[in-house]
Amino acid sequence: MADPKGAPSRGSTGAAIGEKHAANLLFVLPYLLVLLVLLLIPLGLGIWLSFQDYDMLGGWNGGVGLDNFRNLLDDSIFPGAVRNTVVFVLITTPAFVGLGLFLALALNDSLRRSAVLRTVFFGSSVLSVTIVTLIWRLVYLPDRGLAADILGLVGLHGFDPVTSETWALPAIAVVTVWWIIGLPMTLFLAALQQIPAELYEAAALDHASRLTTLRNITLPSIRRTIAVVAVIEIVLQFQLFGQALLITGGGPNNHSRPIVQFIYEAGFRDLQLGFAAAASQVLFALMLLAALGQMWLSRRGEN
Amino acid sequence: MESWHRGRSLGDRLLLLAVMLLAIAWIAPIVWVVGLSFKPNEVLMRSTGGIIFPPFTLKNYTDILAASSVFGWMANSAIVAVGQTVLTLVIASLAGYGFARTDFPGRRVLFVLLLAALAVPEQAVIVPLHTMFAQAGLHNTYIALIAPRLAFPFGVLLMTQYFRAIPAEIEEAALLDRASRLKVFWRIVLPLSIPAQATLGIYTFLHAWNDYFWPLVSATKPEMYTLTVGLASMQTNFAQTEGIGFLMAQAVFAGLPVLILYLFFQRHIVSAVAGGGAR
Amino acid sequence: MSIRRKLPALPSLTVAMLAMLLAGPAMAQQKTEITFARFFGACEGDYGTSQDVAHARGECGVMTTLVNLFNATNKDNIVVKPQIIEWGPYYQQLNARIAAHDIPMIAVMHTSQLGDYTRYVEPLDDLLKEAGIDATDFTANARAGVTVGGKIYAMPWDTHSWLWHFNVGLFKKAGLVDAQGQPLIPRSVDEMIAQGQQMKAKTGKPYIIIATSGAGDFANGARGYYSWLYDQNGSIFPNGYEKADFKTPESLAAFSAYEKLAKADLLTKGLDGGGAIGAFLNGNGAVYLTGTWRIDDFLAASAKPGSPLSEGYTARVFPNLFKTQSVWTDNHSWVLPKGGTNAETHKAALIFLKFLWDHNFDWARGGGHLPARQSVMAEYAKLPLRQYVVDIPTFGRALPHEVHRQFGFQNMIGEEIANVINTGKTADQAADAAQDRSVALLRGR
């Protein structure tokens, strides 16, 4: 058995070191300034906007209190968009974390073959969403697409995810995982590189099995990275947009329209900036809740 | 732990087989993209199969190169992507170190604020941002193209997380020698964080390079277009039904620089020496 | 200054900058620059500096050669600088530019959008006169398109509309042709369903090909819905523009025409634009629902030996299944956004508009749309198959300009029709959904 104490303890890595000193603020000051000017102030303006009747071309018609939010509640599309977005995050986040970790573990070595494979799994990320969806629409074509052909081999005929209320969102999830698995994979690779070699040497001396090493050394060492990747994927996948717009347009029967598409349509197509801003605030609140929930879960897992 | 590939057990082989199968699923569409880019658009209107059979053409690529502004767009994209990457690395590394390893008044509160900012969707800020840059008269400048993304906290969070995992003893020793904080950061911590820098760098670059909506509404003068906006403007039909080969050539043309960059960066993400040791 | 200029070594950069400093102001005095915002793509590869307008093909080819020709031949030292943007986000960018006071001098606009923009574009009645453009030459359809509240807000450029494109070979095989070998056009919903069933029985192919899968394809269903609604003289605003009514008998009949086609399994499901056009070119469907702008593409395809269309291709106005023939139309037009031109550039912009007006036939011929000028219609009718569509400007219709957010309506209606086609939603359910969704589209206007 590997010595569990061999895993980096919290004392030596997690905490700040040195004196508490106001001068240390200088390290974070440049970022805080950018954050304030380019994110927090616009966010504040956006929150103000969500209480206004503001049409991009019709102009500003004054404050309307909570009307925009009430209209969201009563909307025939928005609640479905919230449901779709949450389901999508629940499908994709575990997939990104699991598959990303699997690939990172499998490809974390200096073999040339692994370098090639890492490039392959990263390669799809360089494509724009237009190209990714164009290709996958061909894959998903009813009757003669690649997916229909492959499923036809195992006796599943008539596969047409784009027109299926059940399968539209999972089909978009597959596209999304294919497109950007490179990010979690790379984040896990960078974390694996940080694990001190001595830990593994000690385990080898103990003749620990590989599974034991994975469980007792590798996973505990990158536990925080797993939590960070999960939070990052939650934040990213809540903002699903282009894939859904270009593959299903939100259909069928509003079963794949994400919140961002709703915001885009309300704000940029139908010019209702106040209404769209209100939907943005709902999205913000959901993302905040989900991210905090995830952080709380991983904290609890630590203790 | 033995290398996953060097081992000879059945488990190892199954694992390798699984990775290889996944790799095929990943690379097949990319091969398809490249293949389609060498096909005449009229042929693709009828069918997008049979990419290994003639006719082939280079016209999709020569059409891209015939655009008199294409290298100007590319230079704009390069300036924006490099600028954003360098600035992000500097700002995020400093802030990440500050949050991970130093203490200052308000540290906890500020870090919570940063985590909350992570949850701000782009859609919630893009309209106010556009108005702010319009009022400052900054649209159609590189500043407007580079600055907004510097505020997104992903990089700071990543670097904070990474610095925290570096054993503190290394720094403590240096601090005992009365080295300044900045010097410790610069001489000792930063070199250890190369894999995280490379990861953050490649993703910042990729995001900046592929960004579409913000450049579209900010850089409206054709000489300020980025490559994504410029290439998209060339599409000669509405529904992307007849320019498939041209679109694919654009994808290859725009994607290749990033892929090449990744090949350089990934050496720093998985270095030969560290990779050999950390299994 | 182009970015490429910045790349060479420092000395040449300095020289270049000096040259710019010296030449820049001088050049600005000589030439009047007209910024010209449009979609239609860029095609320097095929057209480069060509001025051969008469032989240009496609929207991009005609636009490019027209600008080249104007820049090379105008006597007033005007240079037109196109600012080309992708179709999809064109209006989003235009809105952003209006908000940032970064305004193009001339911009393309669909007349279906004009109602949203009247505050932001110059009224043109007097300016057109000043430019020497005769507004009495506008077709009825073009005139309606550019006129809002009695004033002209744009120079019309074309009419485009919605057609049935036929694979005549399949119609022959199904026995659905007249004595001249031309496809029989259905005159009622029942006739359409009967034809479709005969087609399916005789050829095994779907009667109708329609793209319904992505957001870009939703317009397709909506255009047919509007056409069938207008054939009954119906409206989705029978009681003023404050409230829509999708449950009128006329509206329900239009939805239900789609429902009957879907229930009888006579149209393609789940196809995107590329899949639909591929299906038609490969003979996997008898009628393709798409626009006037496709005629030349399909004529060219049918001329190729061995093409599944080689037994004949033709096109007709979207058939009237109800009372009076009408059809959905829209127009491209040119607007002068307020604040784009000043006293100096104003005249130059009008000179360019007049040049475009004089070449309206070239646009119709090469771009695939119907002309906006009555005086060139006879010449247009001589082009292949155009005799079948030439009357569209007399009976074609569009939503009134009082209806704002028309893209929103088009997308929403089209999405509901896609639901009818792809998921078995009934006409009633689709009309209900459209009714609910119209509330948000009408709010605040």
Question: Sheet bearing the most strands of chain C, described?
Answer: 7 strands, mixed
Query: Rounded to an integer, what's the Rg of chain C over CA atoms?
Result: 24 Å
Number of H/I helices of chain C: 19
> Which spans of chain C of ≥5 residues are poorly predicted at pLDDT below 50?
1-11, 24-28
Straight-line N-to-C gap of chain B: 6 Å
Q: What fraction, in percent, of the residue positions of chain B are helical?
A: over 70%
- β content of chain B, as a range? under 5%
Largest interface, with counts of residues having CB < 8 Å to the other chain, equals:
A-B, 112 and 111 residues
Give the percentage of residues in beta strands of chain C.
5-15%
* Envelope shape of chain B: globular
Q: Which superfamily, in CATH terms, is the homologous superfamily of the domain at 68-234 in chain B? A: MetI-like
Unreliable spans of chain B: 1-7, 272-279
Mean pLDDT of chain C: 92
Backbone structural class of chain C: alpha/beta
Radius of gyration of chain B over all CA atoms, rounded: 23 Å
Tell me what you see in this structure.
Chain A is mostly helical and 303 residues long. Chain A has helices at 10-13, 25-49, 67-74, 78-106, 112-123, 129-140, 146-153, 168-180, 182-192, 197-205, 210-221, 223-237, 242-247, 259-269, 273-302; strands at residues 52-55, 59-63. Chain B contains 15 helices and no strands. Chain B is globular and about 70 Å long. Mean pLDDT of chain B is 88; it is low at 1-7 and 272-279. Chain C is of the alpha/beta class and 445 residues long. Chain C has 19 helices and 14 strands. Chain C has helices at residues 10-30, 44-47, 58-73, 90-99, 111-117, 125-131, 140-146, 168-173, 189-203, 218-231, 249-263, 273-281, 295-303, 343-358, 360-367, 377-381, 392-395, 406-423, 427-442; strands at 32-38, 78-84, 106-110, 147-148, 151-152, 155-156, 158-167, 208-209, 287-291, 313-317, 327-330, 332-335, 370-371, 396-397. In chain C, the strands form three sheets. In chain C, strands 7, 8, 9, 10, 11, 13 and 14 form a seven-stranded mixed beta sheet that branches. In chain C, strands 2-1-3-12-6 form a five-stranded mixed beta sheet, with helices on both faces. A two-stranded antiparallel ribbon of chain C has the order 4-5. Chain C is globular, with a radius of gyration of 24 Å. Chain C starts with 9 loop residues before the first helix and ends with a helix. The chains are: A mainly alpha (303), B mainly alpha (279), C alpha/beta (445). Chains in contact: A-B, A-C, B-C. The interface between A and B is large, with 112 and 111 residues.
